[in-house]
Write a structure and sequence with these properties.
Oligomer: single chain
Number of helices: 5
Strand content: 15-25%
Pfam family, one: AsnC_trans_reg
Radius of gyration: 20 Å
Distance between the termini: 21 Å
Order of helices and strands: HHHEHEEHE
Organism: Actinoplanes cyaneus
Protein name: AsnC family transcriptional regulator
Keywords: DNA-binding, Transcription, Transcription regulation
Number of strands: 4
Helix content: 25-40%
Shape: elongated
Largest sheet: 4 strands, antiparallel
GO molecular function, one term: sequence-specific DNA binding
């Protein structure tokens, strides 16, 4: 799909505030509200914009403990198997295949260390997991929504 600088700016504005009206966005990109809506509809149809969601502050709902866990798996474990297994755990924020020694990297959030330990034990119990290596997050320094590189004006 061909995207121009206006499309990129619209996406950046939606990432910053998905509740912004088409008129508000239009004022910032010099388009009418209907023109912005047409562009957003086109971006959604093309799969560039997958949806709109609320971003929750984990601490506000009591999930203040997080860790990154390297998963080491049996030889024939597929990314699809890792995906299915990690989706079973509500504490999993994200799961990624990675380069290096580990087969996958899993981001966990929990209410406290005890909850994190329970989540880790359940993750380790998956049949394909041979071992894990965990790193507990001490503080979040930078966290942004999906960033879209903006094009120069």
């Amino acid at each position: 799909m061909q995207m121009d600088a206006v499309d990129h700016r619209i996406i950046a504005l939606l990432v910053a505030d998905a509740r912004a009206s088409y008129a508000e966005i239009g004022a910032k990109v010099s388009l009418s509200a209907p023109a912005v809506k047409r562009r957003v509809d086109r971006l959604r149809s093309a799969g560039v914009i997958k949806g709109f969601t609320a971003v929750i502050e984990p601490a506000a709902v009591g999930w203040t403990t997080e860790a990154f866990v390297e998963l080491f798996c049996t030889g024939r474990t597929t990314p699809a198997q890792i995906t299915v297994a990690t989706r079973r755990h509500p504490e999993v924020v994200g799961a990624y295949t990675v380069s290096g020694q580990a087969d996958a990297l899993v981001h966990l959030r929990a209410a406290d260390i005890g909850h994190l330990e329970q989540a880790l034990e359940r993750l380790r119990a998956e049949s394909f997991v041979t071992s894990t290596r965990s790193m507990v997050v001490l503080s979040r320094l930078v966290e942004t929504p999906t960033a879209v590189p903006s094009l120069p004006d």
